[in-house]
UniProtKB/TrEMBL annotation:
Pfam families in UniProt: MreC
Protein keywords: Cell shape, Coiled coil, Membrane, Transmembrane, Transmembrane helix
Species in which this protein is naturally found: Clostridium gallinarum
Protein purpose: Involved in formation and maintenance of cell shape.
Name under which the protein is recorded: Cell shape-determining protein MreC
Residue ranges the record marks as coiled coil: 67-111
Length: 283
């Protein structure tokens, strides 16, 4: 009987110790979990801040690295763009020059009984282009007074004085220059063209001595007539922009806008007749 009581007591003690161990283990695990959870809760906000800062720093570094790269690429593109623009300007310049020379060549082919000397403007003989130009060719190049000067667009004027390596060219805009012209559509050859300046207009010419029954009209093309052999025949001069009737002088007059833009002249050509002892142009 006593032995049974001892066994029962031992069993109770073992079970009690085991149960106590389980309780202590459970408490320890809960405490560890709580501590771990608490530490995690405390660390998580800090981790978020650090992560955010790292992301921003990385983003900033990427931005500056990419910005530097983009800036360098932009410099290269700008350089290439400038080079392309310069090439385009050069191309346009050559294209315009070729077109001008082609026009002059067409005139030379139609008037192949003359020689032509190319020249450049080096100054004005007065206060403006209407007073005349100074060109870089003169007597040493075969130029003489009264020779005519053309551009790719048409008649420019006439040589009025020469030096050894220069000459003065008076343009159509000068009232001292008179040109015998004709109306291309009617072939009338009685007109005289001179410079014409008003308070509101410059760069124009006036055509006079047209008969009252002249059929000249706005838009007509005016050419040199060749009368007097001072100018070769059929050089383009300009276009009629208005026509008036002068009942007192019993004639018609017309305002003509020259084809040549005298403010933008570049290459000029002096027309040299075959016989230069006396300047006369064959028609």
């Amino acid at each position: 009987m006593k032995l049974r009581k001892n066994k029962l007591a031992a069993t109770v003690i073992v079970l009690s110790v085991a149960f106590l161990g389980i309780i202590i283990y459970t408490i320890n695990n809960e405490q560890k979990s709580a501590i771990s959870s608490g530490v995690g809760s405390a660390i998580n906000p800090l981790q978020k801040v650090v992560y955010s800062i790292n992301n921003k720093i990385k983003g900033s570094l990427d931005f500056f690295l990419n910005f530097s790269k983009i800036k360098e690429e932009n410099k290269e593109l700008t350089k290439e763009n400038i080079e392309l623009k310069n090439k385009l300007l050069e191309y346009d310049k050559f294209k315009e020059e070729n077109e001008r020379l082609r026009e002059v060549l067409n005139f030379k082919n139609s008037k192949n009984n003359y020689s032509y000397i190319g020249c450049e403007i080096i100054g004005y003989s007065g206060e403006s282009f209407s007073d005349g130009y100074i060109i870089d060719k003169g007597e040493n190049d075969g130029l003489k007074k009264d020779m005519i000067v053309i551009s790719d667009k048409g008649l420019v004027g006439q040589v009025t004085s020469t030096g050894t390596n220069w000459a003065i060219v008076e343009s159509l805009l000068n009232e001292n220059i008179a040109v015998s012209v004709m109306v291309d559509s009617t072939r009338e050859t009685t007109g005289i063209l001179k410079g014409y300046v008003t308070r509101t207009n410059s760069g124009l010419t006036k055509l006079t001595n047209l008969p009252l029954d002249s059929e000249i009209k706005e838009g007509d093309v005016i050419l040199t007539s060749g009368l007097g052999q001072i100018y070769p025949k059929e050089i383009r001069v300009g276009e009629v922009i208005s026509v008036e009737t002068d009942e007192i002088k019993v004639m018609k007059t017309a305002i003509v806008k020259p084809y040549v833009d005298f403010d933008k002249l570049e290459e000029l050509f002096v027309v040299i007749p075959n016989e230069t002892r006396e300047i006369k142009y064959e028609n």
